[in-house]
Amino acid sequence: MATLIPVILAGGKGERFWPVSRLKRPKQFLCLDRSGRSLLQTTADRLLKLTDSWNSLWVVTAAHLADGVREQLPALPESNLLIEPVGRDTAPAVAWGTLEVAKRHGDDAVVGFFPADHWIADEAAFRQTVAAAAEMASSQGAIATLGIAPTFPSTGYGYIEQGDDAGTYGSLNAYKVTRFTEKPDANTAQTFIDSGKFSWNSGMFIFPAQVMLTELKTHAPDLIKPIMEKGVDAYQNLEKLSIDYAVMEKTDRSYVMPVSFGWDDLGDWNAVERLLKQPDDKNVDLATHVAMDTEGSIVYSSDQDEVIVTIGLEDVVVVRDGNATLIVRKDRTQDIKKAVKLLGGEERFKHLL
User: Fold this and answer.
1) What's the CA gap between 308 and 317, in Å, rounded?
2) Using CA atoms, how far apart are residues 80 and 60, in angstroms rounded to an integer?
3) 115 φ, ψ to 5°?
4) Is 34 helix (H, G, I), strand (E, B) or coil?
5) Measured between alpha carbons, how far is residue 302 from residues 20, 146, 250, 320, 337 in Å?
6) Over the stretch 32-69, which tens digit does the pLDDT of each residue have?
7) Which of 14, 38, 16 is nearest to 26 (CA)?
8) Are 337 and 319 in contact (CB under 8 A)?
9) What is the CATH number assigned to the segment(s) 4-264?
10) What confidence score (pLDDT) does residue 2 get?
11) Which part of the chain has CATH 3.90.550.10?
12) Rounded (5°) CA angle 276-120-25
């Protein structure tokens, strides 16, 4: 089997982690646990164990984030850093990244795309799953996606319905994909879970380069042809498009491999609680926090010498970063993105973004 070539997708904003996450310091540059390593660095550490060297690891990022990637991953070869001039969602990133990998490693290279902001609990199980998915992709000419076993009826994730059994690879079962469904309502999500046939869409994809390029030519010719002709110079005129919509919802080459290694996409501050909360903890403290009758809260400060005192609070998030403070109920963290947009609408607040 060909060596896997991992590509990190590192262009996201992570606005729901404001104010720690800013325009030039998005979520993937943050350390959201106690490891001292950012999400991007942790992702690179994880993927380097799947390949032979830094020469085989690639990163796709936005122009305004390129220097941050260079700073956080100094061993990454400059030629392996693909810089998008404008964000056009995941389909152009996958298309351009696959083309560039194929030029160097050949059309038969098995390529894996991995978001920079995921948390993985069991890295040995992760490596075993990715190796099995790469084996399936190579032997079947498949586009493999890793499906996460849902633990609650989330309305924030996409879902994958598994169809016919597609065999076993590395002791792991694989299935043909029946359909992809974007962010359902709560009742539909519960129906999906009750059926036992649905996984969360992790956004991790593994495939032979030529297979993805062929499917892009079939299902998204207006995307792939300009990139093949002009490379990154085509970006300005490209439509904003996800790889799910461009290819995965249309191709007959999609397979899903359900996984069990423990996963979180770290979508907002509540994810920090899921990662770090211990049974005896009243709160999750990533700050010097003095709590009086405060429970179920998440408290973060970028300055550990700063003291945050809370009194009589329950189920809130308190975040202090430089010139901005956020206080929000845990059940309203999805609205942080709206608040960031509100700040962006006023000139006096734009320096906070």
Assistant:
1) 12
2) 8
3) -60, 150
4) coil
5) 8, 34, 44, 7, 20
6) 887 889 999 999 999 999 997 999 999 999 999 999 99
7) 14
8) no
9) 3.90.550.10
10) 59
11) 4-264
12) 75
